[in-house]
Amino acid sequence: MENLSILLVEDHRQLAQTVVEFMEQEGATVDYAGNTSLARELVQEHHYDLILLDVMLPGEDGYSFCRYLRKDLALDLPVIFMTARDQLEDKLEGFDRGGDDYIVKPFALPELAARVSALIRRQRREVTANTLQVADLELDPARQEVRRNGQLLKLSPTAFRILRILMRESPKVVSREQLEHELWGDLVPDSDALRSHLYNLRKAVDKPFDNALLNTLPGVGFSIQEDRPVAG
Amino acid sequence: MENLSILLVEDHRQLAQTVVEFMEQEGATVDYAGNTSLARELVQEHHYDLILLDVMLPGEDGYSFCRYLRKDLALDLPVIFMTARDQLEDKLEGFDRGGDDYIVKPFALPELAARVSALIRRQRREVTANTLQVADLELDPARQEVRRNGQLLKLSPTAFRILRILMRESPKVVSREQLEHELWGDLVPDSDALRSHLYNLRKAVDKPFDNALLNTLPGVGFSIQEDRPVAG
DNA sequence: AAGAACCTTGACGACTCCTTGACGTTGCGC
DNA sequence: GCGCAACGTCAAGGAGTCGTCAAGGTTCTT
User: Fold this and answer.
1) How far is the CA of B224 from the C1' of C25 (A)?
2) Residue B232 has pLDDT above 50, yes or no
């Protein structure tokens, strides 16, 4: 649960506070919205690893908000519905709208935490310690080794973590915010240390080779993928 | 559920048969094992998309089998525990051993099916559609890439956002107010910056090609679509 | 205790992007 | 036809971001 960034959308103040406190105690950072209009703003401005979503909300309901996430924003982060509605049709609707899990109130907080972890682990491809591969680049999480074209690369621990994030997300673009939060949580360095790490990472991964795999999209983020042709 | 290959590990004959029949009726192919030694053989010889796993089995239990899958075989396919044990510790153990979901007997078969689908869709990264398409124009939000006729276009972040909105709404016309609000919220620039962005967008999207896709409807808004008939 | 590895910080130039404003063009109402 | 408003075109300026790299300090190893 470390350095997870979670958005909680829930109109019951009491329950919301309980969940927030528990999750933060587990090491997550939690933003809270009591309705979907605030949630819509938050979701456009920040990166979240997972969303906890109540169904019955004032105004727009949770189902509709989930659909908006999937269709309009094309966000594929895990969504867990949390609701008192335990009818089969309600659950089916939740999954049908793109939800990943559906937990009925009242629930035990540790179970919620376990479901969150399970979804994050799958999303981050941490179910097994299999090696990640992008083009001729291989990362072995168990051995803490990175090879390119069979050749072992020497990376600092932080550079390794960054590369691992970029590779598991490949070919998606990873925002600076997401990287920083996953690396440091709430303790992001004052100055722009990420730039230095990226510089060193590039030096190790791309410099000794012909084609670059690590791309910068100015103002957007970074990605690792083969042959991103530069347009004129 | 089409063409899914599922392994069911369950020692209760009656329940097993019910689940098999339901899942096959939904279009899946189901192999069945009443104990983990058979399951171990099957899993090594065949590919499965997902495993439905009872906890209490003769001999080795489900937890242990799941652990074996993850650690020894390094298989990352989704695993759903199906069991009558509803205690919190049991559930936590299930997730802790690498399970993706945990459903308590008795359960409704459609709910099981929904959970299976949700896990498959996440595993395959099919949670969201990955590209928007209008005519020969394709936009991939995750990669932050736009192609026309297969050719990668270079767009500024704002131009990209505008195009994304227009393509999402296509072939509808998007008003200037809607665009400005979605781009900047309440902080719309003093001068008419949108005009510049549209100009640059057009330069990238339409200029290098024969036919224009980006249309202006004076006093109304903008749209992106092929061959818009001239209004009378 | 000495040394190595590592992370952070700061400086600098280069680059990108957004805004702004100027000017020409189109189109519609009168 | 005229005038106004909306639109297309384009360049310049400034804010912010990025690549580069070295120095200092902390932690870890030996």
Assistant:
1) 22
2) no
